[in-house]
Amino acid sequence: MKILVTGGLGFIGSAVVRHLIKSTDHTVLNLDKRTYAATDGSVSAVVDSSRYHHMDVDIASSREVEQAFSVFTPDAVVNLAAETHVDRSIDGPGEFIHTNILGTYELLSASLNMARQRGTLDTFRFLHVSTDEVFGALGPDDGSFNEATPYDPRSPYSASKASSDHLVRAWHETYGLQTIITNCSNNYGPFHFPEKLIPLMILKAKKLEKLPVYGDGSNVRDWLYVVDHARAIVAALENGNDGESYLIGGNAERSNLEVVNAICDIVDSETSDLDSSSRRDLVHFVSDRPGHDFRYSIDASKARQELGWSPLMDFETGLAETVRWYLDNEWWWGPILNEQYSGLRLGNAVAS
Ligand code: NAD
């Protein structure tokens, strides 16, 4: 199958591209605009494959998207291109509207046009990768999100992702495009841009810098190893039912403070550069993110039953592997910290 992947130079997109090239016989065209979040190093393991192709494309440009479709004539689209950092969406929501909403619209339009022209509406698949954040926030005793949970987005990021999910569903109901939506919990693993909690804390802990934790650190996320997410996306593309949504999660709820303390302990044991003190002493609490969702939790039983998917990596093993990956791969994150993002606080609610 010829699969057009968008955002394949990003964290999850590159994991999907690596998985498709290494573990399947599909051919990939990676469309990526190369924003600050893109890195060539994240796909260096597969760029030499004859089944891997790349084009620099803004998915919100109809001209660029149409050109990519006419060159590649895909059998399927997997849409991961997005602006993804909640704190950046608070500071500047415009890019989130541009890419996450308009970009998804352009991909849907091009997919429908091509499937109609080529008479492939019955087989063409559009898989849209989304987030559990579209469902809003849970309290401590509110159970888990499932496919019937009403949408209740609360940040500019989650509102833009919710909008795109609704467009995808509308193109299925109105025009008969075969669509699948996956809503996943927080991911972690290699090639994660260091603005996000886990890589930021690993790199600050490595350098013995203060570890800023939002609020009192009690917010809870349900963590999934990125390779398991990539496997879920490909399983949904190959085995998912037309028009359905699947919630994907790792069944690994941890408070932010638990995650940061665990990172401190792993870095302490991997580096042995402290005598009796612990990196836990570097934790300091900072003002909370505006509108910070308290808890996310996923019931992934539908994905387990219908896709035959389940996570292979447990959180403790995955976190230790991730810490070791960052300690061993400064070639990847060093230039990012020097040229793109120095680790400063974002998201202070002054929208532009
Ligand atoms: P990321 O920020 O690491 O990467 C996004 C990629 O998209 C980058 O390579 C960037 O250059 C590209 N991109 C951005 N705007 C573009 C545009 N207009 N045209 C083409 N390319 C563009 O993101 P990620 O964490 O890998 O997330 C991928 C997808 O998964 C997103 O849709 C996100 O909403 C979703 N998701 C992420 C998580 C998570 O924990 N990271 C969890 C659930 C769902």
Task: Give an overview of the whole structure.
- The chain is an alpha/beta fold and 352 residues long.
- The protein contains 11 helices and 13 strands.
- It has helices spanning 11-23, 62-72, 86-91, 94-117, 156-175, 197-206, 226-239, 256-271, 301-307, 315-328, 330-339, and strands at 2-6, 27-32, 52-56, 76-79, 125-131, 178-184, 187-188, 211-214, 220-222, 224-225, 245-248, 253-255, 283-286.
- The strands form 4 sheets. The protein has a 7-stranded parallel sheet with strand order 3-2-1-4-5-6-11, sandwiched between helices. Strands 7-10 form a two-stranded parallel ribbon.
- Helix 6 packs parallel to helix 8 (256-271) and helix 8 crosses helix 10 (315-328).
- It is globular, with a radius of gyration of 20 Å.
- The termini are far apart.
- The mean pLDDT is 96.
- The protein binds nicotinamide-adenine-dinucleotide (NAD).
